[in-house]
Amino acid sequence: MLSTKSLRLFIACIFTCSSLSAVAQNQAEVWLTKADRSVLFTRQAAGLSFATAKNDHPAIVVNDKETFQSIDGFGYALTGGSAQHIVKMSAPARAALLKELFATDGNNIGVSYIRLSIGASDLNEKVFSYNDLPEGQTDLTQAKFDLGPDKVDVIPVMKEILAINPKLKIMGSPWSPPLWMKTTYDARGGMLKPEYYDAYAKYFVRYVQEMQKEGIPIDAITVQNEPLHPGNNPSLLMVAPDQALFVKKFLGPAFAKANIKTKILVYDHNADRPDYPITILDDPEAKKYIDGSAFHLYGGKIEALTDVHNAHPDKNIYFSEQMVVEQPDATDIKIVNPVRRLIIGATRNWSKNVLEWNLAADPENKPYTDRGGCSMCQGAVTINHDTYSRNLAYYSIAHASKFVRPGAVRIATNDLSDLPNVAFKTPAGKHVLIVANSGKNAATFNIAFNGKSLVAVLDKGSVATYVW
User: Fold this and answer.
1) Which among 21, 115, 294, 303 could bridge 268 via Cys, Cβ 3.0 to 4.6 Å?
2) What's the whole-model pTM score?
3) What's the maximum distance between 2 C-alpha atoms anywhere in the chain?
4) At 73, which helix (H) or strand (E)?
5) Across-strand partners of 387?
């Protein structure tokens, strides 16, 4: 039995703990980025307090009783070029960078989702696939499949990342099949020859299996990056009927036969063609193998993601790529644009993730392929030997990735015209509200939740994340 003294201490602890919990629930952390760069993703020393006082300010009302999609994560593409720069850093410098990007404690930003290219993307030093053969030769069984160049940079870097965050989600996307499978023996353009559909399905199987052997689990694959953009290097033209046929007759059955649980995502291109994924999902035979569809936003409107969701609400939506750049010597940071369009826009339109393009480059945005590689694709970080600087893509993702952890659920908020916003409830029971001030003036507004509200002030062009 407890002594009288111990009992008093126990009761006191109960009241103290309850009091601290109540205080925590009534306080909101504020993480802020200002357009003038005077504050860059920094926790503010003074939090904000919820109270019952009334005022006439407009209100963002947060309602966690109304829920939408669950969240898989936020992050970037780890291109071959990104990995090439990271792997060349000294071990201490590389460890510091990866910890800042993928850990969640302190000021680390907790990236939770990575996209890899299956073979080379246009941000590799040179084009390659995992089964390159001289023209005229074939390998229908994928006996010569080899992860090849990725063993030098992508795989070692991924292993270090997974040591920091073993639960990281990984998406793989091909830019081109091996050249011998294409209608033209060229990395750019061309189409997949029908006689090699089966061999290409086996190629995907081998990719997932070989990455798993390296300790790198692939959560999802897209069938083709930008299937309607054959001008990139590498690239492939794959129209919707062909993609539907490939999935339902070859890729889906091949994954099922090999007992592969990796999700299959279709489309992986701009929001201006929602008809592409919808027509594939309209095919019941293809649909049964498909988890959802993936989007970019170089064309179209982000609301098109909701059109696809409404057409097939039983299938998921993903946001797999958007380039986010700024001038290296810019005096301001236009953070409202990517946060409003991507972090807020994609998730308010049912996306389970947001991925920006790409993780790292050098001061000249290298490497990139010739004949169509992206010379203006800036990394979230710019790496110069053992030093690195943080760019717009870093800060825009950080405002979500650190707090909106995998398994979080989007919850309801009203949308104020000059204060676009989105809210989530995390697996730990916290609430996260991301707000961008897209208006012409500083804004004073309420955040209302469960009958109480707090007053927030946000300068024009600024973004804040509120956590309680």
Assistant:
1) 294
2) 0.94
3) 89
4) strand 73-77
5) 384
